């Protein structure tokens, strides 16, 4: 029963007057059944609107333990955000193995086909703070916690298969350089500034990663459409302790798709939470995102024959060298009940691996094995963060660790040490079941702060990446470099960076030089190992990898009073049949009265629902409304940006004045609204051929 409001002093003549603004009455009218509100000590609360005062207009009393508890808790509601990957969205789901790796590993999660292992997966941007936008140009984190029967396995990867640096020693420098500049505290969530490019231009090992970072990979359309990569080589160990190297890859079932840069920038204004909302809505609608888990397996001997060192995290293993094998499927089917509880408090750590998986000597991985546990100690406030439900293993776990901040476990008994003899049932290590490490021979070369000579080639794979892209992707990459370096105020940094690019490809360097308006190609620095030509690696492209359906995509239909009901119905039906969500946009959120007299409510008001939110748009208007909207800037932008972002546009005759006002041209992607089939076919892809007509690319 809802608590009844009890005024502090019901007899006071001012009391009833001072109760105005008390939400209790309104809440009671709102109805529903609700449990008793209590303090954290379980004391029932009588009034959650007014603090305890000495008289209706008097000072607040220190005695008000209810107010103090509420405010104190609120004051402590924020925990330190992650120093990197602060902005993220996560979901629960499961992983199901479809092909056993028995013979390579003893890890049951990779050998027991059909077993559903629960997972929690968190996607993130890297540079921005927790409150920053979802769509900056940035790498996306792709971290999966598998709650296996043999302990937690955290595969903490990114949506790009390589990294900026080769040694953990450089990570704080990289992150300091990309984050907001320390004196001015901007720019937020952006690499387009001096300190980042200063560092990068002096760090040639970052060149391959820079190719990926400046490509459309860092502008994902949806978190459901990104690939994931474990990046480092790991080892699989069989029962006898034999080792096979492995690289892990996630492949999205919806295909890989990105936005274009101008669209990504406008998305930052249209919806700060574009990716989070997309993931939330898809899961709520039962459209569960899914990925295939694939592996590349190779032996030590094979690794020795590669023309690069697989322990160097700036290198991919091209798929023509080691093909991908699909072994399982991850489905995300449950949004957390509470964002903070799971997504904020989840603590990933690459050192969490079950018996049968082991680390390689990749020096970046080796540093990560230390960093993640260390960061949780400050972020989550102590050594017991593994007891938070999202972090706790789902298999039994026991040891002699005790006490510490926020200890929640209640281990009984006298014995919290080993060896011991006083008590039965205390945990003991086991050679047979316990975690084995690969008995690798330690390098006998002696200690030293060294980089192996095999890590010295920084350009071959950067060139291979650039040359493997389709022409529009190459132009986007070159234009991204021009955009970013144009934001760099220090000329010497711009020039140094372009000098570096000459080692990737002269053509790329020339295009960036032109785009920046530099008088001449800057000189290339001396390098230890110049780029070699390699066969193209088609797997790095995005174009052509969109799925040939509208599954996972969203179509916006702009309507107004008098819009043709049959056309709207036909477009909606065809789009939904192809798997798309359909959203109605109208000048008023209440909707519009259609040609047949029916009323169609809108999902979004035009001013707040621009076309950047959709993969393709249909504009269905009565001629009078078409004329009127041609004078409405939000409507003009709706059509103009759909055109500029290479999207399919279906329009009827009434929409013609609007299309004209928006300078929408003619091409295969602009179709009659009645030609529903053509519209669906055009909506399945982007109109790449349109781009040179409307934008100067580098
Ligand atoms: Fe991380 N990284 N990282 N990282 N990383 C963190 O751990 C670090 C690296 C990645 O959704 C931090 O819990 C070092 C590569 C993801 O919660 C921190 C180095 C890759 C996430 C940390 C790297 C990643 C993190 C910050 C170089 C791809 C987000 C908060 C040696 C393979 C996980 C935290 C989540 C988070 C350290 C490099 C992926 C500080 C020292 C390479 C997806 O511990």
TrEMBL record:
Its cofactor is heme. Residues 25-52 have a biased composition (Polar residues). GO terms for molecular function: catalase activity; heme binding; metal ion binding. Its EC number is 1.11.1.6. GO terms for biological process: hydrogen peroxide catabolic process; response to oxidative stress. The active site is at residues 85, 158. Heme binds at residues 82, 122, 171, 368, 372, 379. GO terms for cellular component: cytosol. Residues 38-426 form the Catalase core domain. Residues 1-57, 418-446 are annotated as: Disordered. CDD domains: GATase1_catalase. It is an enzyme of class 1 (oxidoreductase). The keyword Chaperone does not apply. It catalyses: 2 H2O2 = O2 + 2 H2O. Decomposes hydrogen peroxide into water and oxygen; serves to protect cells from the toxic effects of hydrogen peroxide. Belongs to the catalase family. HPII subfamily. This is Catalase.
């Amino acid at each position: 029963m809802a608590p009844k409001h009890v005024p502090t002093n019901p007899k006071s003549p001012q009391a009833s007057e001072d109760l105005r603004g008390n939400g209790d009455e309104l809440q009671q009218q709102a109805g529903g059944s609700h449990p008793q509100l209590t303090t954290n000590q379980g004391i029932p609360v009588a009034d959650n609107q007014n603090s305890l005062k000495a008289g209706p207009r008097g000072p607040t009393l220190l005695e008000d333990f209810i107010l103090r508890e509420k405010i104190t808790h609120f004051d402590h509601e924020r925990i330190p955000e992650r120093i990197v990957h602060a902005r993220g969205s996560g979901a629960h789901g499961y992983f199901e193995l479809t092909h056993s790796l028995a013979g390579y590993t003893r890890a049951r999660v990779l050998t027991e086909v059909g077993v559903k292992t629960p997972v929690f997966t968190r996607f993130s941007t890297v540079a921005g703070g927790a409150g920053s936008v979802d769509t900056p140009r940035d790498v996306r984190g792709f971290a999966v916690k598998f709650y296996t029967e043999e302990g937690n396995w955290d595969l903490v990867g990114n949506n790009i298969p390589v990294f900026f640096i080769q040694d953990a020693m450089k990570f704080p420098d990289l992150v300091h350089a990309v984050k907001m500049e320390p004196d001015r505290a901007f720019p937020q969530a952006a690499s387009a500034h001096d300190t980042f490019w200063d560092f990068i231009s002096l760090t040639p090992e970052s060149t391959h990663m820079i190719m990926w970072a400046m490509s459309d990979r860092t502008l994902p359309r949806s978190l459901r459409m990104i690939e994931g990569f474990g990046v480092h080589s790991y080892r699989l160990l069989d029962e006898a302790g034999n080792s096979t190297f492995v690289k892990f890859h996630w492949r999205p079932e919806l295909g890989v798709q990105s936005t274009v840069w101008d669209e990504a920038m406008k998305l930052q204004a249209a919806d700060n939470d574009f990716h989070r909302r997309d993931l939330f809505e898809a899961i709520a609608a039962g459209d569960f995102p899914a990925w295939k888990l694939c592996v590349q397996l190779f032996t030590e001997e094979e690794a020795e024959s590669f023309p690069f060192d697989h322990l160097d995290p700036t290198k991919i293993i091209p798929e023509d060298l080691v093909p991908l094998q699909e072994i399982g499927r991850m489905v995300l089917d449950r949004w957390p009940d509470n964002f903070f509880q799971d997504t904020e408090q989840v603590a990933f750590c690459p050192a969490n691996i079950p018996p049968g998986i082991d680390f390689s000597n990749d020096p970046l991985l080796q540093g990560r094995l230390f960093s993640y546990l260390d960061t949780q100690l400050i972020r989550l406030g102590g050594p017991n963060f593994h007891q938070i439900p999202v972090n706790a293993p789902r298999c039994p776990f026991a040891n002699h660790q005790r006490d510490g901040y926020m200890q929640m476990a209640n281990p009984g008994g006298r014995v919290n040490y080993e060896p011991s003899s006083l008590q039965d049932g205390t945990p003991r290590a086991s050679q047979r079941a316990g975690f084995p490490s690969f008995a690798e021979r330690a390098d006998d070369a002696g200690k030293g702060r060294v980089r192996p000579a095999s890590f010295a080639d920084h350009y071959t794979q950067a060139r291979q990446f650039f040359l493997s892209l389709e022409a529009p992707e190459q132009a986007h990459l070159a234009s991204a470099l021009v955009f970013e370096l144009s934001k760099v105020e220090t000329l010497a940094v711009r020039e140094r960076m372009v000098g570096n690019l000459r080692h990737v490809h002269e053509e790329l360097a020339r295009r960036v030089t032109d785009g920046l308006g530099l008088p001449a190609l800057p000189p290339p620095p001396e390098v230890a190992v110049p780029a070699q030509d390699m066969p193209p690696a088609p797997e790095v492209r995005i174009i052509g990898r969109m799925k040939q359906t509208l599954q996972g995509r969203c179509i916006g239909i702009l309507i107004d009073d008098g819009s043709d009901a049959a056309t709207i119905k036909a477009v909606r039906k065809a789009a939904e049949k192809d798997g798309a969500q359909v959203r109605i946009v109208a000048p008023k959120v209440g909707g519009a009265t259609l040609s047949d007299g029916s009323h169609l409510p809108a999902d979004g008001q035009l001013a707040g629902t621009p076309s950047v939110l959709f993969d393709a748009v249909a504009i269905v208007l009565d001629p009078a409304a078409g004329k009127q909207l041609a004078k409405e800037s939000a409507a003009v932008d709706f059509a103009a940006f759909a055109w500029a972002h290479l999207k399919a546009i279906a329009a009827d005759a009434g929409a013609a004045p609007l299309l004209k006002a928006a300078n929408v041209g003619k091409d295969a992607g602009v179709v009659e609204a009645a030609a529903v089939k053509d519209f669906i076919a055009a909506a399945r892809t982007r109109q790449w051929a349109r781009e040179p007509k409307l934008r100067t690319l580098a």
